[in-house]
Amino acid sequence: MNLVNPYRFAAGGGGDPDFASVVLLVHMNGTNGGTTFTDSSSSVKTLTARGNVQTSTAQSMFNGSSGLFDGSGDAVTAADSADFTLDGDFTIEGFFRPTTTSGARDVFSKRQAAAWVLLYLSSGTVYVYMSSNNASWNIASGVNLGAVSTGTWYYFAIKRSGSTITAHLGTSGSTSTVSVATSTATFDSSQVLSMGGNFTNGAEWFNGHLCEFRITNGVARDVSTVPTSSFPDS
User: Fold this and answer.
1) 3-class DSSP assignment, residue 108
2) By Cβ atoms counted within 10 A, which residue in 25, 135, 175, 233 is the most buried?
3) Residues paired with 13 in a beta bridge
4) Contact 153, 137 (CB under 8 A)
């Protein structure tokens, strides 16, 4: 796969022409051992560092650091917001680098019982789950995106365009894509959005590094190629 920058540039300058629709953008930049996480979106959310989560300069994609999650109680959370109601087109994307692939781990989630969208790492395989009813994974139930290995950065993206939800998983050398046809809106969970585990239920903690987590609500982006630069702040 050829790496290309997927961003369209606005006339008269650079940036992201869909930035007004970005409702969460977490680069996870910072000093080694830092505990401050910032939302750089157009509608800034307060983020809370849970457990021992911290920024680390040991691994990064673009900016010299990333979020380090130790697999035991670590998460970065944002309070529930109407911005996270996914009843139309949307795009959720980011990068993760697992330190371990054993067990059951949420890369991100916003859960009650079975709710919203979940990127799930189980015994070395990545799955997508989505629900409209908080009772079952009736939109996507364990849709297999492929296997991952420790020590490798992966780009993930889940988007809805009209009545089709498409998920992508990629590295610099390969991508995999799956699609699910549905016109059903995702369940409007009232729980926190959790990066790095299932904070609501205190389980399935991610062990590894995360960065460049972005939610664009109302826009189905072109996510068919792996980004080669940090997501724009404007």
Assistant:
1) strand
2) 25
3) none
4) no
Q: Which two tokens stand for residue 4?
A: 């290309």
- The predicted model gives 206-222 an average pLDDT of 97
What mean pLDDT do residues 123-142 have?
90
H or E, element range at 25: strand 22-26
Instruction: Please name each of the domains of the chain with its CATH number.
Output: 21-217 (2.60.120.200)
Cα angle value 207/166/181 (rounded, 5°): 130
Structure tokens at 11: 């006339």
* Tokens found for residue 30: 């910072």
DSSP assignment, residue 123? T
CA distance 145 to 99: 19
- What's the whole-number mean pLDDT along residues 110-122? 82
In which residue are the tokens 């969208």 written? 117
Burial class (CB in 10 A: 0-12, 13-18, 19+), 197: buried
pLDDT of residue 61: 94
- Tokens at residue 188, please? 């409007």
**DSSP-assigned letter for residue 49:** E
Q: How far apart are CA 183 and CA 172, in angstroms?
A: 32
Percent of the chain past pLDDT 70, that is, above it, reads: 91
For residue 78, give the nearest of 106, 56, 109 by alpha carbon: 109
Asked if residues 28 and 55 have their Cβ atoms less than 8 Å apart, the reply is yes
Q: Tell me how far CA of residue 207 lies from CA of 96, 141, 151, in angstroms.
A: 10, 23, 11
Amino acid at 132: S
Type and span of the H or E element at 67 = strand 66-70
Residue type, 3: L
Token digits for 208?
A: 């590894």
